[in-house]
Amino acid sequence: MSVLFVTSEHAELVKAGGLGDISAALPRALRDEGCDIRLLMPAYPAVLAKVRPVTIVAHRRGRGAIPPYLIGATEVSGGVPLYLAIAPTLFQRDGSAYGGPDGLDHADNDIRFACLSLAAADICAGLPRLGWRPDILHAHDWVSGLAPAYARWSKLPVRTVMTIHNIAHQGLFPYERLHDLCVPADSFRTDGLEFHLHGSFLKAGIFYSDHLTTVSPTYAEEITEESHGGGLHGLIEGIAAAGNLTGIPNGIGEEWNPRHDHYLPVRFDQTDLEAKHEVAELIRTALCLEPSEGPLFGIVSRLVHQKGFDIVAEVADRIVAKGGQIAILGTGDPQVEAMLLDLSRRHRGKIGLMVGFNEPMAHRIIAASDFFLMPSRFEPCGLTQMQAQRYGTLPIAHRTGGLADTIEDDETGFLFAPLTAERLSEAIDRAFAVFADPDRFDAMRRTAMAKDFSWSGPARAYKALYGRLTDETSKPAQRPHSLVVVPKSRTAAAAKVA
Ligand code: ADP
Question: Which terminus of the chain is less hemmed in, N or C, by CB atoms within 10 Å?
Fold first, then answer.
């Protein structure tokens, strides 16, 4: 089974969120399951700085507005082969994978990620110097959404899987860019990649791939509904009805293990949780929190509207009044950052905020905390609630998406719904009650820590899916997915998410 895994992040090289973790861990786990899996990602400066020497395996000519590019071969730790789309004018830039140092997305992200997708199609078509072609092309999120489409348009002999990690990011581009992106004009229709008079990378991936997956069973159901489907729910409903949508939860890697976490000053496991107090002391000092015997609530997150921290702001007075403290690490939307900064100023010594992306601090806050706040409006899978449970930190989370699938209410954490300050308050009260009952608190923490969040289960599920798809290869011509017509009334919600 050979698989090309196309992504824009890799935790060891460049990471903006969960996709980076998944792209590092899932291929390794799939390799352990016997898959010949290889990665493809853009050659960002941080990638070139960290990988072993790169061998150029192809020179590709420019097409549309996509400049000439190279395909390089190297490997990442653990010996997983890594191919790179090398286009210095597109990828050799300061900032994150998606935007400049000012935090704004690059205006030519469509060209950049079309280049990545074209490189994927090149590899699927077979590059003489590579001597390798995948059975499966596995694309992730909008950034590689055009890859299954290019493969389909070129009638390449490869089965394609598209995984949605977050439907809120769709990669829209104007009609005028079709030629620039090498997209055939006749694909610009409802039964194609058109989305409200724009082209959509994500819709292209969904529409033209053979199978669609997302990262939890609950989110797989949610995206067939108007409230969570980002305007694509009609299409996805049709795909689900045809049996071509699967929800496979993510796992977390062994780097998230309190027994040998090198970011912690002291290590611990379920047999001895005392060391958590020591890490908590460190965090209280680092975030200027007063010494306290009360519970510590942690937040490690992108600070964006999706994550629901405006609801936390509404209940913060109550947490503090009951003797709790909040340690926050995150970066993102300046408005959300400002709101939390204001909150921490109002509760000096009780609520501490560290703005930034800081891997060691993420591990320490998750290890130090008693409870972990995740009032996400939607959460395709979520990783931090699993990381928290593995460290004996009980998540308090909105019952949505992967949070509903990976937390057992009152056993390994606290779930609440609907997403209101009142319901969050009730969940927090339940957490305070458990904190006041050390035996129960300990039992819950140990149950959470004993859960299996490893990647081996998800890897087996993906491998089984790949196997089903390649078994179907002998079947007659692949058909584009059927479309469920979306009534006009649904389009307002669609436009909002887009
Ligand atoms: P999302 O992908 O929506 O950002 P996830 O919970 O799926 O959310 O994954 C977030 C990942 O990024 C986790 O591994 C988490 O520990 C990490 N993370 C989030 N914010 C920060 C931060 N400010 N510093 C370091 N790591 C972070």
Answer: N
